[in-house]
Amino acid sequence: MENYTYNSLTLQLEGLMVTNTNKYPVFLFLLLAYVFILIANVGIVILIWTDRSLHQPMYLLFCNLSINDVMGNSLLVPRVLADILVPPSERLIHYYECLMQAFTTHMFGTNAHTVLMIMAFDRYVAICNPLRYATIMNSKMVIKLTVSAWGVSFVLVAILLGLTIRLNRCRTLITNPFCDNPSLFKLSCEDVFINNVYGLTFTVVLLSSSICSIILTYSKITAACLTNNSKSLNSKALKTCSTHLCLYLIMLVTGLIPIALHRFPQFPEYRKITAILFNIVPGSLNPVIYGLQSQEILKCLSKLFHLKRVINEM
């Protein structure tokens, strides 16, 4: 007869199965990626908030994406880094810490969709209603969109984890490099039908809403560009929309790969790696792509570096 430990507050993370040979290269890669994510995203947020010329809806909404990237990686990567350096038997985590990590993980993924959806709305108004852009996208609207993006994510994720918290646990091993909702409700020996139904509904509604809103928005933007003879407007639309679309595709692809790998249980390590990369890749590329494509941000950065050079020469 199998022995179970009920509702233990100490859980064990399986983590990444790295050998002694590749332990330190993997650790170094994740550490450098995390440091870059912090510096790039925090730097972008500080630059936007301190430079009044960047106090535009497009950049203020992008701050949400940078804050989300920092939040999502800060509760995930340091823990993964710590676990790499210890044997699997010592990768222990408290249940409440695991819940917090799961909540942050799902908030990060959900926010990535909702924030990019409100950024798409901003681009739609800017290109399809340029004369009313300042009236529609005022400070109140930016606050409403931001609160809506984070509020919807919070409610959806709170219900997701609320259904899991109610379950009694009879297992302690989390077969993942970090905590998430499926890993937590798999610890239970009770019926998890409701969890599976809500989790599937949650994923389908989020993905379908996200994809449909992007398709609808860009269809209207394309139609507006085709009927408009202004080359400068079309050029600006192409530049800003290509940046936003690139960020969306990176987030979508990196998110769908680990979901697809769940169908192939013979590749558990690939699934774990891609799940971590879902946080790291968008978090690293978002500030780079947005920063390089934005003339305003590049101008502010060049002014900043020029000022520092002048001060050093004095």
UniProtKB/TrEMBL annotation:
Record Gene3D superfamilies: Rhodopsin 7-helix transmembrane proteins
UniProt entry keywords in alphabetical sequence: Cell membrane, Disulfide bond, G-protein coupled receptor, Glycoprotein, Membrane, Olfaction, Receptor, Sensory transduction, Transducer, Transmembrane, Transmembrane helix
InterPro entries reported for this sequence: GPCR1_Superfamily_Member, GPCR_Rhodpsn_7TM, Olfact_rcpt
Identification of the protein by name: Putative olfactory receptor 52L2
Every G-protein coupled receptors family 1 profile domain range: 40-290
Transmembrane intervals: 26-49, 142-165, 197-219, 240-261
A cellular component annotation (GO) from this entry: plasma membrane
Xref: Pfam families: 7tm_4
Name of the gene: LOC116060370
Molecular function GO terms recorded: G protein-coupled receptor activity; odorant binding; olfactory receptor activity
Membrane topology value: Multi-pass membrane protein
Subcellular compartments: Cell membrane
